[in-house]
Amino acid sequence: MSKFWANKIHRFVNIHLESITNICNFNADKVVLNNKCYGRLTAFMDKKLNRLVLGLLWGDEGKAKIVDIFAGSANVIVRFQGGSNAGHTVVVDDKKFILHQIPAGILHSGKVCILGAGMVVDIPKLFEEIRELREAGVAVAERLFISSRAHIVTKLGKLLEGAIERSQNIGTTKRGIGTTYAEKVLRTGLRMGDLMEGKDYIAELLEKRYEDIASILLKVYNIEPPKLDDVIDPLFENIRVLRQMVKPVMPMLNDYIADGVGVLFEGAQGTMLDIDWGTYPYVTSSNTTIAGLAAGAGVNPRKIHQVIGVVKAFTTRVGEGPFPTEIEGALADEIRGTGENQWDEFGSTTGRPRRIGWLDVVALHHAVVLNGVDAIALTKLDALDGLSEVKLCRSYWSDGDITFDMPASVPQLRQARPIYDTFPGWKGPTRGKKRYKELPDGARQFVERLEELLEIPVLLISTGPARDETIIRRRKG
Ligand code: IMP
């Protein structure tokens, strides 16, 4: 078949698919969640769509497991923002993998994985990850590609971030994320493509910046800066391998999209940590939303057929910043767990205990609108098993009024008081359940109230860390 006809047929199929998925976008004035919607959405789970899976709140929603489920029906998996601040945990056959920069889809053999232009790459840490995967029998060579436009995290950036953190107290992961994005915006950053030009070129670029940052470190923060060679050398340790990975991936990715092979975009962090739409300044330094995908992967967002928003049955956040539904004390400790279990609420990148709160529909609604979320993947429902009551925040009391909108400023967020729907805790475990009807009544009520408030379906429910501890809803009931 000629390329002309192949493209024509492909376009026809794509347009057809888009029109069918739009039916499930629930754009109609009155949202009706009926069995047809669930059926259509799940039918599309197996199709090679372009799909975005992203976190809707402050990260750690359990995205990696959901990415892992959808990776089966994609041939290409893409990270488009953030860097080693992410910690994506996947459990396969009782083996736990924590991925920081490489997309979680790498665990599916034969899939192509891409780190897009919007990422900030920590090269030594990337190679640690590659080594760990190789030792676990996961081959990475020839299927991991990095955009030549992605920025590079250096030792200087990490040291500076650690120093700034002491006075600013954002609670960053200290992985040099903010300082590297700052250099990008200042137009003084280093990119993967620069590295390909060789050491002399990198030295020439870095020399200009080195003196400035070294003197800030020393004079302002009293930190001994590393020597210039110690900044440059680690970037070149694996240069031979890197040369095979660093490519102009944007045209490659758009060709995959044109070929309809199924591209899965894996968001990192969550919408409430977005630099523009999160709880600024207590956010990360990238756009964690669908807008970040467009800029960071170089893909027309209209090519995305389906957006899956991942959210836990409760809320967590690590680091500082406002958190309207936060709970403390014994109840928070009970939900967080002791840290003995892999699913307990401790940071997978930093090990910090996560702050705990009830699920916040005001923040969720903000994220659903911003990202055009089609369906929810609800994770960790089992963490609420055994509680005497469970709450869902449906609005805030703010400035003497009820509001459904996410306040923009820290003082407004701090004074907002959550208004809750309270449910009696459910009898019987949800842990490991694989069918919706096996869930206790109370748990189903909780899920259905969430759908009612958000006006989109909860398509997947994760009831444990393993791949198969998942309910995929094909019907409403
Ligand atoms: P940074 O991304 O290291 O600059 O940290 C900024 C804020 O985002 C801090 O509150 C971090 O705890 C938070 N953060 C960054 N990455 C993640 C993540 O993957 N999960 C949850 N929180 C994150």
How would you describe this protein?
By secondary structure, the protein is an alpha/beta fold. 37% of the residues lie in helices and 19% in strands. The protein has 16 helices and 21 strands. It has helices spanning 3-23, 35-43, 63-71, 123-135, 155-168, 177-186, 192-196, 199-220, 228-236, 239-245, 249-259, 290-298, 329-336, 361-371, 410-415, 441-454, and strands spanning 51-55, 76-79, 88-92, 95-99, 112-115, 120-121, 144-147, 151-152, 246-247, 263-270, 306-312, 315-317, 326-327, 355-357, 359-360, 375-379, 389-398, 401-403, 417-424, 458-462, 470-472. The strands form five sheets. It has a ten-stranded mixed β-sheet, with helices on both faces. A hairpin with a 7-residue loop joins strand 20 (458-462) and strand 21 (470-472). Helix 5 crosses helix 6 and helix 5 packs parallel to helix 8. The radius of gyration is 22 Å and the shape is globular. The relative contact order is 0.15. The structure holds inosinic acid. Inosinic acid binds at residues 58-60, 85-87, 170-173, 175, 177-178, 268-269, 273, 282, 284-285, 318-319. Inosinic acid is lined by residues 58-60, 85-87, 170-173, 175, 177-178, 268-269, 273, 282, 284-285, 318-319.
- β-strand amount: 15-25%
Q: Helix/strand/pairing class, anyone?
A: alpha/beta
Mean pLDDT equals 91
Largest sheet: 10 strands, mixed
Question: What coarse outline follows from CA principal-axis ratios?
Answer: globular
Classify the helix fraction into a percent range: 25-40%
- Ligand names: inosinic acid
Radius of gyration: 22 Å
Low-pLDDT stretches: 15-29
Distance between the termini: 46 Å
Question: Going across the major beta sheet, what is the strand order?
Answer: 9-7-5-2-10-1-11-16-20-21
Number of continuous helical runs: 16
Number of strands: 21
